[in-house]
């Protein structure tokens, strides 16, 4: 469902993107080319700051927002998901938040008030809260990363983890083409 927010902003969706009919996109959401948005995803840019302003939620080209993902933002703060990034099933991205290029965010993970730079991998059930995570870092499953975390103790993304991330992005890009070809059938 594509709908306006209370201020009247409508999502802007590139014609090459696929948005599942069960997904909800509300307000100042920008979906770039060849993006996959899966079933029951919710992307809401509807809260305003004290002056009535809302920054956009931007989903970069060739990224995928999988089933049940929630992307929202506090008081109209911006959320940016850069290109070729995968946000896996039931993850929550709550702004303000910036997620770089080629990032993988695992199932049920939570991102809040953070920046995650390019090529990072955040595995399932992890939390990244209030921290700037430099490029190429690997967050293990169930780990909590915050301002008190010693980033030097975090491992770098391995070649296997990088290959996995790239394969997920490639697979979802193929889903865009597949679903676009049959979208008039449902």
Automatic annotation (TrEMBL):
InterPro entries: CA_gamma_LbH (IPR047223), Gamma-CA (IPR052265), Trimer_LpxA-like_sf (IPR011004). Belongs to the gamma-class carbonic anhydrase family. PANTHER family: CARBON DIOXIDE CONCENTRATING MECHANISM PROTEIN CCMM, CARBOXYSOME ASSEMBLY PROTEIN CCMM. This is Carbonate dehydratase. It comes from Pseudomonas matsuisoli.
């Amino acid at each position: 469902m594509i709908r306006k927010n209370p201020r009247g902003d409508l999502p802007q969706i590139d014609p090459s993107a696929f948005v599942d009919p069960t997904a909800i996109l509300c307000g100042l959401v920008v979906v770039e080319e060849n993006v996959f948005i899966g079933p029951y995803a919710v992307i809401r840019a509807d809260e305003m700051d004290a002056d009535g302003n809302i920054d956009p939620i931007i989903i970069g080209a060739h990224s995928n927002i999988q089933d049940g993902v929630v992307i929202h933002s506090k008081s109209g703060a911006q959320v940016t998901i850069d290109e070729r990034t995968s946000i896996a099933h039931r993850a929550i991205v709550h702004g303000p938040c910036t997620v770089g290029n080629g990032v993988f965010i695992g199932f049920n993970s939570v991102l809040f008030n953070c920046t995650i730079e390019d090529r990072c991998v955040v595995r399932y059930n992890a939390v990244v809260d209030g921290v700037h995570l430099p490029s190429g870092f690997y967050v293990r499953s169930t780990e909590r990363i915050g301002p008190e975390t010693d980033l030097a103790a975090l491992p770098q993304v391995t070649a296997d983890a990088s290959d996995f991330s790239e394969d997920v992005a490639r697979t979802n890009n193929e889903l865009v083409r597949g679903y676009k070809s049959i979208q008039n059938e449902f």
